[in-house]
């Protein structure tokens, strides 16, 4: 399954390019002959059941697992935000952000990144004293400060409460608009995927089961994507009848709109 | 108010009570001749002797000699323990080479090596320092080894995803993560170093606390022996305070279970 985004229009080389990528753990084939391209500045959401191989795919794109000579193109500047913020508890917040940055400007850059995520007042805090939302914002700053071409987010907001999650959506979109990295966000939340992404990909048993580009503007998605939402839920094995709760959540305003 | 004062003081007072009574009983027994001076000198005699030994410079000079033996032996032992622990943990070959030797070494009581050390190194400073170094190496090695195993893999992964090289990983992630265990090892090492000092100096010494004790034994000066025992106790106390201070500083990031 090869993907052309805008047929007929010459595209710059994609930032991420996988062709026929497979990964197995022992006898289990976790990723099965996968093709995936991500264009520069594109925001992709990856949906899938638990165990469908999302994290495995993300680790490959993060360069954390060796690709064993397979055809994998990833940019050199990458940054990951994990579900658990994974801050080093023995380093103050700004030092976590500055981790591994070379040169004297490290502190200034870390402070600037923390200011962007609204944490200027927590520079010297110990990570274990941060709230869940603050920890994730620190993790975002730590990713951002590396000026990545590719940002990888693995269920970054799953552990946050609903309100904080909506604020984080807004923050991520603002950061993305300001810096324009390519983004792959793994989520199990269909509404999160719809609210954030240019393109939604559903992974199932190591294969791409479903994929769709969202053309509607992010601000006016809630009504127009109702049908997409139903199809995404269908791909994930959740049947929705018209007018049922799962159907109407997207039809109504609250969640996704508040995020814009 | 009086009540608060009495509850504040009473546990304190009761903790001082028994040692003071013990000293009084001891003094009384010495004065009445129940305990002859060649069996055990009276506390008052010990105090006077100590002041004399301090004034004459005899105690400080010999204490300094002993202190250097411990400091040097500890410095070598702890450094070797740290280096070997890191090497054994961070490469499979290092583990295969180092760990079996350390396990064999563990089965031999270091004290039993003293005769061999004297044959090898003579009777100067070297065998004493070597004995302390050799004895303190193992607790540091073992605790660091276990501590590194306990370092959160996910933190290592995260740090690697930000492009930290092996050296930076060790400095920023692995050693700080293993620090609580390392400090436990250090605490053991300090205790053991003082025990080994006593043993090494009893065997043969021409200066140092052990030399004082040996001389005092030959002249049945129990007052000097008790003075030296007190100095050993003070050394142990100082070592404990040192570790506590280091712990408080190095582990400041850990949330306190009991807020002061
Ligand atoms: N290091 C590993 N060793 C063995 N099996 C693994 C490993 N990592 C992941 N798996 C397996 O691969 C499958 C996909 O895992 P993962 O990519 O984490 O799924 P997801 O993130 O979609 O929930 C799971 O069945 C998991 O047990
Ligand atoms: Mg996962």
From TrEMBL, chain A:
It holds the Pfam family ABC_tran. Residues 16-230 form the ABC transporter domain. The keyword DNA-binding does not apply. PROSITE patterns: ABC_TRANSPORTER_2. It comes from the Bacteria. One of its GO terms (molecular function) is ATP binding. Keywords: ATP-binding, Cell membrane, Membrane, Nucleotide-binding, Translocase, Transport. Belongs to the ABC transporter superfamily. This is ABC transporter ATP-binding protein.
UniProtKB/TrEMBL annotation, chain B:
The chain crosses the membrane at residues 65-87, 107-123, 129-148, 169-186, 192-212, 224-243. PROSITE patterns: ABC_TM1. It is a multi-pass membrane protein. Keywords: Cell membrane, Membrane, Transmembrane, Transmembrane helix, Transport. Residues 59-243 form the ABC transmembrane type-1 domain. GO terms for biological process: alkanesulfonate transmembrane transport. One of its GO terms (cellular component) is plasma membrane. Coiled coil: none annotated. Its main location: membrane. It is found in: Cell membrane. Probably part of an ABC transporter complex. Probably responsible for the translocation of the substrate across the membrane. Belongs to the binding-protein-dependent transport system permease family. This is ABC transporter permease.
